[in-house]
Amino acid sequence: MSPYIDPSTASAVIDLDAFAANIETLRAHVAPAAVMVVVKADAYGHGLLECARAARDAGADWLGVATPGEALALRAAGDRGLLLAWLYGPQEDLTPLLAAEVDVSAQSVDQLDRIAAGARAVGRRARVHLKIDTGLSRNGATAAEWPAICAGARCAEQAGVVEVVGVWSHLASADEPGAVSVGAQQEAFENAYRVALQAGLQPAIRHLANSAGAMIWPETRYDLVRLGIATYGIEPDAGIADLAGISLRPVMRLRAQLVNVKAVATGAGVSYGHTWHAPAPATLGLVPLGYGDGIPRRAGNRAEVGWRGRRAPIRGRVCMDQFVVELVDRQLSAASPVVEVGEEVTLFGPGDHGEPTAAEWAGWCDTIGYEIVTRIGSRVPRVYLRRSASGDSAAAEGEGG
Ligand SMILES: Cc1ncc(COP(=O)(O)O)c(C=O)c1O
């Protein structure tokens, strides 16, 4: 018996046509810059392998991941395209990555030395992107460390073990229109690039922009943009798509069946701690997803789900595997007085049928749309929607883990 929730009971429905359409829209928007689709963290919860394949089909020039494990999973699944991995620890063996022809990021002389050793071990020149910290204060070499890294990389190039193909960095506040840090980071980036050239390197690919940068800061696009959240149809922040003059469609619809329905009397306390009491007789539905599946506990008494084209508010606390919604449907009550177990609710989706979006959930839960979709756990089956291979418009469904 599989440890996952049965897909009829609850699933995250992933619209791969919407994903492809978002990528095509963004590709046209950033041209002539090339596009890397970021599929780390299980493609932001949407499914690594299926999204990677769909991104390549939609014309992604590159894929980007954080960890070596993610990159190797893509290679094991047959992906052979341009692929960059940028986050690994001091103990990790980089040779499998280099053998699999994955581009790697380096931000220190130590990392370069390990990459060079790995390249010697596998007998293949490593393709490296040198990372400069231009102001995020996260990964990347400081300006003080940068000249030594460039010099070390040049030596490794001359030894024939490394090829520096890119210089890159990451923006801190591109989702804030008018943020002064963007210009400052860009200036630091261009200085770093000049230092690299002076060291004798010839990195052909400069990349700085994430979704927000690519969408509303054209000067940050350089040769390649790294697009994550926007490809999944979620704005980096409210209003960014309008500012860019493009429209994106959310790719994930999280839905479930009501697994229980009951009437409670005035005053009934609902869920752990009785943080909500029915002010009048109420009909309650039980949704079989909880914080064990990535539903934020913060959503208790705050968020809503879509039901019968309207909204049903969450009542009481979100539990590990389930939460309770109040079902109020006065308009339909004469025609269908009873709410049936098995009726469908949509926690979030594109919003076409009155359901909330991930962005709305982010507002209720004091977080960002990124976290809402990425946290949806492995117990929730992903069901993939795509047009059939024959090209007609009938949707085909496939399931993934
Ligand atoms: C280094 C790097 N580049 C690009 C991205 C994609 O960012 P976004 O999802 O905002 O497009 C991320 C995501 O966090 C990242 O860590």
From TrEMBL:
<comment type="function">
    <text>Catalyzes the interconversion of L-alanine and D-alanine. May also act on other amino acids.</text>
</comment>
<dbReference type="GO" id="GO:0005829">
    <property type="term" value="C:cytosol"/>
</dbReference>
<dbReference type="GO" id="GO:0030632">
    <property type="term" value="P:D-alanine biosynthetic process"/>
</dbReference>
<dbReference type="InterPro" id="IPR001608">
    <property type="entry name" value="Ala_racemase_N"/>
</dbReference>
<feature type="domain" description="Alanine racemase C-terminal">
    <location>
        <begin position="251"/>
        <end position="385"/>
    </location>
</feature>
<keyword id="KW-0413">Isomerase</keyword>
<dbReference type="InterPro" id="IPR011079">
    <property type="entry name" value="Ala_racemase_C"/>
</dbReference>
<dbReference type="InterPro" id="IPR020622">
    <property type="entry name" value="Ala_racemase_pyridoxalP-BS"/>
</dbReference>
<feature type="binding site">
    <location>
        <position position="138"/>
    </location>
    <ligand>
        <name>substrate</name>
    </ligand>
</feature>
<comment type="pathway">
    <text>Amino-acid biosynthesis; D-alanine biosynthesis; D-alanine from L-alanine: step 1/1.</text>
</comment>
<dbReference type="GO" id="GO:0030170">
    <property type="term" value="F:pyridoxal phosphate binding"/>
</dbReference>
<feature type="active site" description="Proton acceptor; specific for D-alanine">
    <location>
        <position position="40"/>
    </location>
</feature>
<feature type="modified residue" description="N6-(pyridoxal phosphate)lysine">
    <location>
        <position position="40"/>
    </location>
</feature>
<dbReference type="Pfam" id="PF01168">
    <property type="entry name" value="Ala_racemase_N"/>
</dbReference>
<dbReference type="Pfam" id="PF00842">
    <property type="entry name" value="Ala_racemase_C"/>
</dbReference>
<feature type="binding site">
    <location>
        <position position="320"/>
    </location>
    <ligand>
        <name>substrate</name>
    </ligand>
</feature>
<dbReference type="InterPro" id="IPR029066">
    <property type="entry name" value="PLP-binding_barrel"/>
</dbReference>
<dbReference type="InterPro" id="IPR000821">
    <property type="entry name" value="Ala_racemase"/>
</dbReference>
<dbReference type="InterPro" id="IPR009006">
    <property type="entry name" value="Ala_racemase/Decarboxylase_C"/>
</dbReference>
<comment type="similarity">
    <text>Belongs to the alanine racemase family.</text>
</comment>
<feature type="active site" description="Proton acceptor; specific for L-alanine">
    <location>
        <position position="272"/>
    </location>
</feature>
<dbReference type="GO" id="GO:0008784">
    <property type="term" value="F:alanine racemase activity"/>
</dbReference>
<dbReference type="GO" id="GO:0009252">
    <property type="term" value="P:peptidoglycan biosynthetic process"/>
</dbReference>
<protein>
    <recommendedName>
        <fullName>Alanine racemase</fullName>
        <ecNumber>5.1.1.1</ecNumber>
    </recommendedName>
</protein>
<keyword id="KW-0663">Pyridoxal phosphate</keyword>
